[in-house]
Amino acid sequence: MLSSPVWRGTPTLAFCAGLVSGGALSALVLIVAGSLLREPLPVAARWAVVAAALGAVLLRETGVWSFRLPENRRLVPDTVFRLGRHLGPLQFGFEMGTGARTYLPSGLPYVAAIAVALTAPLPAALCAGVGFGLGRALMTTANLRYDGESGWDGEWRAHGRELRILTGVAFVVPLVAVAVLSGSG
């Protein structure tokens, strides 16, 4: 489906705008729900929950521990494209950007969601949501640059373990920096 003519030109921009908007909305929902959860917990307990989730997900990402994360295993239906050349990709991107309407290839967004809900102020939460949407946009548009003969999927299969470790490190380093900075004042 991503190789169809709708993925050329301005519909791609509409799709990416939908991804970013969906990620931002998810962040807002997380911050509202998190405001109910974070109040009774001391800051150290909040970060302990984030650290525990991170540890479990990293073990899962590296194949040490196997467990399923809650996810909607249905893809966004093709029927969204009935809305036209721009609104269809926008809605498709929005639903994908929320992370709630399709599966996630990594457990790291779950840790980000927990961190946003329990620790993030509003601007940081919005940055995380926009970052999630931009990450999905980068992955999807990069996929379009590969050949249709499983180029992207073939690369993922060939380098999946290394990529999971690399993305894990790229996720952990800034998260630890934020945790240290928030704990120091």
Descriptive report:
It is a single chain. The chain has 185 residues and is an all-alpha fold. Helix content is 69%, strand content 0%. Helix 1 crosses helix 4 and helix 2 packs antiparallel against helix 6 (151-183).
Number of DSSP helical runs: 6
Q: Element order, helices and strands?
A: HHHHHH
From the alpha carbons, calculate the radius of gyration and give it in angstroms.
17 Å
Mean pLDDT: 86
Uncertain spans, ≥5 residues at pLDDT below 50? none
Which structural class matches the secondary elements?
Answer: mainly alpha
- How many E strands? 0
The biggest beta sheet, please? none
Helix content: 55-70%
Strand proportion, as a percent range, falls in: under 5%
Q: Categorize the overall geometry.
A: globular
Termini gap: 49 Å
What's the structural blueprint in terms of helices and strands?
Elements: H1 10-38, H2 43-61, H3 87-98, H4 108-119, H5 122-144, H6 151-183
Helix pairs in contact: 1-3, 1-4, 1-5, 2-4, 2-6, 4-5
